[in-house]
């Protein structure tokens, strides 16, 4: 198991020094899933949510979330993000609990000395929170789950792909 890098010799929190690392292309992809009542998903699909186009707003919010990650997560480095792509997959067939889903996928890229995994997970989370915010008036029971890193590439540690 790798050692924790965010602690100094005294055991105090620190921002990792990445100055000696090579600048490489870094890509991180994360997901989040929003669970909701079938009627809520149907209203999103038909554009019947009073606050507007839910997925368009969530997409912009996800991009903004990726860009604001170092403002939210104390030890994250400010990065020159070169790309953020947010996509959605709707699951209209209710699960065993009677809920439908919107799966959110966030891919973030940079060329730099540290990765974009936190930016991708923040983007997916902020997009999920935005869906909740825009639909809470009709479905306060929505929840989001499965926020995780799906893959990352670049840097000394190489490629990671989440096992199925």
UniProtKB/TrEMBL annotation:
Record: residues binding substrate: 75-77, 118-119
Residue ranges occupied by any Molybdopterin cofactor biosynthesis C (MoaC) domain in the UniProt entry: 15-155
Catalysed conversion reaction: (8S)-3',8-cyclo-7,8-dihydroguanosine 5'-triphosphate = cyclic pyranopterin phosphate + diphosphate
Pathway: Cofactor biosynthesis; molybdopterin biosynthesis
Keyword RNA-binding annotated: no
Highest taxon of the lineage: Bacteria
Active site per the UniProt annotation: 133
UniProtKB keywords: Lyase, Molybdenum cofactor biosynthesis
Keyword Metal-binding included in the entry's annotation: no
Molecular function as annotated in GO: cyclic pyranopterin monophosphate synthase activity
E.C. number(s) listed in UniProt: 4.6.1.17
EC primary class: lyase
Any single biological process term in GO: Mo-molybdopterin cofactor biosynthetic process
Quaternary structure, from the entry: Homohexamer; trimer of dimers.
Function comment: Catalyzes the conversion of (8S)-3',8-cyclo-7,8-dihydroguanosine 5'-triphosphate to cyclic pyranopterin monophosphate (cPMP).
Family recorded in the similarity comment: Belongs to the MoaC family.
Record HAMAP family: MoaC_B (MF_01224_B)
Descriptive protein name: Cyclic pyranopterin monophosphate synthase
Organism lineage string: Bacteria, Pseudomonadati, Nitrospirota, Nitrospiria, Nitrospirales
């Amino acid at each position: 198991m790798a050692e924790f890098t965010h602690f100094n010799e005294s055991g105090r929190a620190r921002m990792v020094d990445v100055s000696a690392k090579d600048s490489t292309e870094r890509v991180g992809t994360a997901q989040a899933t929003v669970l909701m009542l079938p009627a809520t998903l149907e209203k999103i699909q038909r554009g019947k949510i009073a606050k507007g186009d839910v997925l368009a707003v969530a997409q912009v919010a996800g991009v903004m979330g990726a860009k604001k990650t170092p403002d939210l997560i104390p030890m994250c480095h400010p990065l020159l993000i070169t790309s953020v792509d947010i996509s959605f997959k709707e699951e209209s067939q209710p699960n065993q609990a009677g809920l439908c889903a919107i799966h959110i996928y966030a891919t973030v890229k940079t060329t730099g000395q540290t990765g974009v995994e936190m930016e991708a997970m923040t983007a997916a989370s902020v997009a999920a929170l935005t869906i909740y915010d825009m639909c809470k008036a009709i479905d306060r029971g929505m929840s989001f789950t499965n926020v995780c890193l799906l893959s990352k590439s670049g840097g000394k540690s190489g490629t990671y792909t989440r096992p199925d």
